[in-house]
Fold this protein.
Amino acid sequence: MSKRTDSNSYTMTFAVIMVLVVGSMLAFLASSLKPNIDENKRIEKQQNILYALGVNENDATSAKFVSTDVAGTAFSKYITKQIEVQGGNEIENIDAYLIDVKKEQTSAKQGKQRRLPLFVGKNKDGVTLYVAPIRGKGLWDAIWGYVAMDANMIVQGAYFDHKGETPGLGANIKQRYFMDDFIGEHLMSDAGVFKGIRVAKGNNDPKNEEKTDYEVDAIAGATITGDGVSAMIKSDLKLYVPYFKSLKK
């Protein structure tokens, strides 16, 4: 006579119970940890924005954020206004940094109006700058960044990151030497035409001394990631042109 524990029904019942128990535990842990996860994401966004603004702890070569302990205080100090841009108009929104750029891009593809967050602040020298988030596609997965501009849409700082680009190649978009190349680059022509910035392979300005050629030098072996950076700059920052033109009225 077989034991009850050897039956198929017992095995199935036990498996179902274990799935329910483990699933409940995981759901509880996820729910419990969500506030901490959300807080960490909030701080990371603030650090990214501050980095592009020039508020960071960079040394001679490395890219370093302000610490998590002071990120909130520094954000309140240097970011003077958070807004949503709609056409050439602005709507003040103190939680603009929480707007999900990926979701807004999806909404735009569905024909809905896209919310464009913009952060107005002053760098350490007291210069007013405008920081815009951008998001695109690299070789393997998502890439994103924050670009700080003056009122003429001249880049004053940038921060880029990625989800899964190749180490030593595309992943180098978050290296200081690449991000610093964008500083001083013009996004608009003198005639007021938006040009963007192209990450160019075979760029004839490897030292990046020419700031009105709308190009920076590419990362060797990372052509597709560089193309993704170029594309997200052109597609996302172009949406802010009416706002920047309104600043001159």
Notes: DSSP finds six helices and eight strands in the chain.
